[in-house]
Specification:
- By secondary structure, the protein is an alpha/beta fold.
- It is about 55% helix and about 15% strand.
- It contains 7 helices and 4 strands.
- It has a 4-stranded parallel sheet.
- It starts with a helix and ends with a helix.
Length: about 160
């Protein structure tokens, strides 16, 4: 079931208790679909700055490189609730406002320019940025793994 959702959809929510194989199933499905798998590494000092750097990496991989990418994100990795707000922005618009600096945006536009030209898209800054966002929407696949144990799961569902 997950393999099909990775190929045809962009979001999958895996719910189960620890050890039920949610992440293993996701890794297997990503491998079978020949998608890159990206997961964050939580450390003691992991905060908003590191989260934003990780988002830049995964979005650049999906948008600039045009690589189908699975972003595996577990409820145990949600150090801050604002992480979910950023994910919501990506799902709605393909981007997180003010995530990339101006020089990074220029680099992204240069990276997508050959692909945009082959696709017949306008090579204007707005056209290249739109092409990048479209590539993110097509290539970025989110898998949330959550445990139903405890109150945080119910609380997150209500938000």
């Amino acid at each position: 079931v997950l393999g099909a959702s990775l190929i045809t959809g962009h979001v999958s929510c895996q719910v189960g208790v620890g050890g039920s194989g949610r992440q293993s199933l996701t890794r297997l499905a990503a491998f079978m679909a020949e998608y890159k798998l990206f997961s964050i590494e939580i450390s003691k000092g992991y905060g908003m700055a590191k989260w934003r750097e990780d988002l830049k990496k995964v979005l650049t991989q999906a948008g600039s490189a045009g690589q189908a990418t699975v972003f595996l994100f577990s409820d145990t990795q949600m150090k801050e609730e604002s992480f979910l707000e950023d994910i919501n922005n990506i799902l709605n618009t393909g981007e997180v406002p003010n995530l990339f600096a101006k020089d990074e945006i220029v680099g992204i536009m240069e990276a997508v320019s050959p692909r945009a030209k082959r696709a017949g898209k306008p090579l204007t800054p707005a056209g290249l940025w739109a092409f990048f966002l479209d590539s993110v929407r097509v290539n970025w696949h989110l898998v949330l793994t959550m445990s139903p144990v405890g109150g945080s799961f119910r609380e997150r569902l209500r938000k």
